[in-house]
Amino acid sequence: MRIGILTLPLIDNYGGILQAFALQKYLSEKGHETILIDRQFNERPFKPLTNIIKKVFFPKLFKKQHEEKFVKQNLEVFINKYINPKTEPFRSSKALKAGVRKYDFDAIVLCGGATVRRSLPVKGIDSKGVIQAMDFLTQQTKQLYNRPIEGEMISAKNKHVIVIGGGDTGSDCVGTSNRHGAKSVTNFEILPKPPIERSESTPWPFWPLQLKSSSSHEEGCERNWLINTKEFVTNEKGELTALITVEVEWVHKPGKRPQLIEKPNSEKTWPCDLALLALGFTGPETTISDQLGLELDTRSNYKATNYQTNVPHIFTAGDMRRGQSLIVWAISEGREAAREVDLFLMGQSNLPTKGNGDLIGV
Q: Measured on CA atoms in the order 28, 33, 39, 42, is the torsion positive or negative?
């Protein structure tokens, strides 16, 4: 059977790569042919990226003796199976449909990620100098490996940079800005400062609520918690010059959602030439779901039962199905979806499954 897998952008997303690996590995073991399509449409795996995967990323996940075997078995197959976007431009759902007809896919797995970026509904959000973090970071990656860059180059050199949001993306923005030569780098988070030790509310094996300081933070960064951005201030040319913020607190009441309260007389103006929004993602874009007739759930994710959408031969996995999450979930979702696809196509499957083994409440 022939299966099309729509993946996350390969240039900057390890989760997408590993999810595609999991799907390809398990389905190929059952004799299915898999064709992988990069949802970014204009990139192709290139040598520097494979070197990053081999030398930087996989050693963190696998013991040394396992790394070479894993890469040899999966990476080369992954690249060899790849559809060249220059000749197969799946730039829209209509083109994807045409590709489905051309390649006569027996099933499709959509694992293109949660890519609708969260923004801020405040004055000045469209100012020149307010940039989505992934635009900044992806452009930097392309520049490092001499890849074509669309639009104006984004640089933090000699600028006051404010990174709004935390996590790995915020940390990467901090480090990259410092290496560009920023005048100052400041980080805002709207949540309270986490405890230095693991919180009792998140015991093992849950993801710990705990203060994390990366090497990027150690390079230099002023970190601020319980800060909410109220306005992006611009000059007569529409260029960002400052941010206005307010201090906040979270009020918790039993049985109700936490309420965000502004502290009176706590407004502050911060000089800023470049604001990077590292606010996460709200879900997958609806272009494909609209044109393929896929239903959404209450959180705007692609609705699926056992990874199968309301269109029987179309499956979905990862962030498209469950919302923005972690790499370990990407791998797990790829494995579980592979089993459901195999079961759908063959009527039975002996591929492994964790069944109902998920942690309660995750």
A: positive
